[in-house]
Each structure stands twice: as structure tokens, then as C-alpha cells.
Design brief:
The chain contains no helices and 8 strands. By secondary structure, it is mostly beta strands. The chain is globular.
Length: 143
């Protein structure tokens, strides 16, 4: 663990709060998985957070990634920058805080819109809270 990294947390991974209990943007390591403490925004489509679904960095209207630095995420693809943020660890209410998984193998609660496990994924072409195949794992690598 990097020197100066936070080692004691006030919340469990499935906890949510209306107040910033951990410091938004805090990174947490458990085993070989990393998590980030974020602010959830349901977006114009009022897309509710669902544990095990994907979030994207929020950008109202999908025009910029300005809220990336504010650690604000959404499952509303139309209000995102189409940049995947992580996998929700709990149902987080609109305007509340919670954890997303940002590194390590993750189990999604929804089926992929195409492709198979092991494929490279992208938010582009997906639907709210999901990912779509960018490159199939069977596609040849072109150098």
C-alpha cells in the first residue's frame, strides 16, 4: 500500500450515505481489488443505481468529462461522458455517496449486450448501466 494511503474506513463497501463520510475520490484496496468513493447522480433519465451494474463519469448532456475530477458518476448513459467509472457495490440514492469497484475482476448483475466474458468492453453503444463489446477476445491483434 502506498505511503500515506488511508487504511481505516468509516463505511463498509455496501454502505451509502447522504454525507461524504470517506472523502469523495478516496481509493480503497481490499485484496487485489480497488474501490473508489463517489457521488451518484441519477441523471435526467432518473436512472437508479443498481448494485453490480456499471457507472460512467457524469457529464450533463454527455458533452464533457468535467465531473470526472469531482468523482461524480451515473448509470444514465445519456448524461455521461461515455467513460466507464466502475461497478456499483450498493444501491446509492441520487445525490448520495458510496463505493464503486474500479480495479480487479468484477461480477456484473446484468448480461452483456453482446460478446462474452473476457472481451474488451466500452460504454459506447451500450444501454444504461451496461457495457458493450469493443473487441471480441477472439479478434486478431493487429500491430
Amino acid at each position: 500500500m502506498p505511503s500515506g494511503a488511508k487504511k481505516v474506513f468509516n463505511t463498509a463497501l455496501a454502505d451509502t450515505s447522504t454525507t461524504d463520510d470517506e472523502g469523495v475520490g478516496t481509493i480503497r484496496w481490499e485484496g487485489n481489488k480497488a474501490y473508489k468513493y463517489v457521488l451518484y447522480e441519477s441523471g435526467a433519465g432518473a436512472v437508479a443505481a443498481v448494485a453490480g451494474q456499471v457507472t460512467y463519469y457524469y457529464a450533463a448532456g454527455g458533452t464533457s468529462a468535467a465531473d470526472y475530477k469531482n468523482h461524480k458518476v451515473t448509470s444514465d448513459l445519456s448524461d455521461s461522458a461515455e467513460v466507464g467509472a466502475g461497478v456499483l457495490q450498493a444501491v446509492i440514492a441520487d445525490g448520495s455517496y458510496g463505493w464503486i469497484q474500479i480495479k480487479g475482476a468484477a461480477l456484473l448483475t446484468i448480461a452483456l449486450t453482446a460478446g462474452a466474458d473476457g472481451d474488451t468492453l466500452t460504454a459506447t453503444g451500450a444501454t444504461d448501466g451496461t457495457l458493450d463489446v469493443s473487441t471480441a477476445s477472439t479478434d486478431p491483434i493487429v500491430a
